[in-house]
Amino acid sequence: MNEFFLCFVPLFVAVDPPGILPLFLSLTVNIDPKRRNRVILQSVFTASGVALVFLLLGKVVLKYLGITIADFMISGGALLFVLSLTDLLSSDKPQRRVASESLGAVPLGVPLIVGPAVLTTAMLLVDKHGVLPTTGAVIANIAIAGGVFWMADGVIRVLGQAGAKILSKLASLLMAAIAVMMIRHGITMLLVE
Q: What is the spatial distance between Cα 190 and Cα 179, in angstroms, rounded to a whole number?
């Protein structure tokens, strides 16, 4: 049980469920509740699937493809940056979002819930604490993120539609900053190698 908690805490920081709630609200601000629930389930299943596959095969696949964690961070950051700019500059967000059937998979499941930070942390924890405690901690943190997303309706009720839209724009700005941070960390890792 001790090994589980030693894995759980760093993964909780990497997943950051409370921190990604504003990003979730930003991406789903005007989606009806039934659609939002499908998006939540899609994001949790996608994040879990990617995390489990990566835990089992990540090192082998990345080595075979010649992809480093730094490459992974830069590409994930670039994807988030493009999405955040689109949200910040678009006045037609709700229609674009409702039409998107992959919102739960990308960007919510990957790279927001399970991104380079989570995958890198998980790989390091597997080496240090083993596969079972790390897998349990990853799944627990993804479930917590899904639970936080389920609470989004309550947050919207408290903030109202205007407050949710303001939070949405602020979250898009935050998402752009996170994207730049990921790219910066990836470039730093490449320069250190």
A: 17
